[in-house]
Amino acid sequence: MNNFLVFWAEDTIFILFLVLPWLWFTGQRKLARTAGLSAGLAWLISKFIKDFFYIHRPFPLRLMDGSLPSLHTAVSFAISFAVYRRLPKFGLVLLFLSGSIGVSRVILGIHYPVDVFAGAGLGVATAWALDTYHSK
To answer: Which residue, 37, 54, 111, 123, has most beta carbons within 10 Å?
Structure first.
């Protein structure tokens, strides 16, 4: 069970990244760009916050960056919410997947719940902002 949780918390995000080329090759190129840019922006903002506003992680790990916000959650929600805005049914599946990534990171003691909520909010905000800007 623990190995599955570790896999889910660390590697499931790559499934979301595989959505980007799938979108591109199925003709949803603008959506693929928006989702990819949203993920990149969420990553940059998360790294900035982690580096300049360091908060210890709940469990002593060898990870050197801060806990807040959850980078995995921010990036996964950025992709998922960008997709949700254009393809709601598929986006709901991805949002559920993103939420489960965040929950698994809390269960494993990698993040506090507030880290995951902050990451989810950041991901949704970046996807919303870029989709709104990109749709004009």
So the answer is: 123
Helices (H), 12-61: 13-25, 29-52
Q: What is the pLDDT along the chain (136 residues), one digit of tens a residue?
A: 578 877 777 888 899 999 999 999 999 999 999 999 999 999 999 999 988 887 777 776 666 677 789 999 999 999 999 999 999 999 999 999 999 999 998 988 888 899 999 999 999 999 999 998 876 6
* Size of the chain in residues: 136
Residue 130 near residue 34 (C-beta atoms within 8 A): yes
Give the separation between CA 61 and CA 77, rounded to whole angstroms. 24
Query: CA 89 to CA 85: how far, in whole Å?
Result: 10
Please give the model's pTM, rounded to 2 decimal places.
0.90
Domains and CATH numbers, the chain: 2-134 (1.20.144.10)
CA 104 to centroid of chain Cα atoms: 13
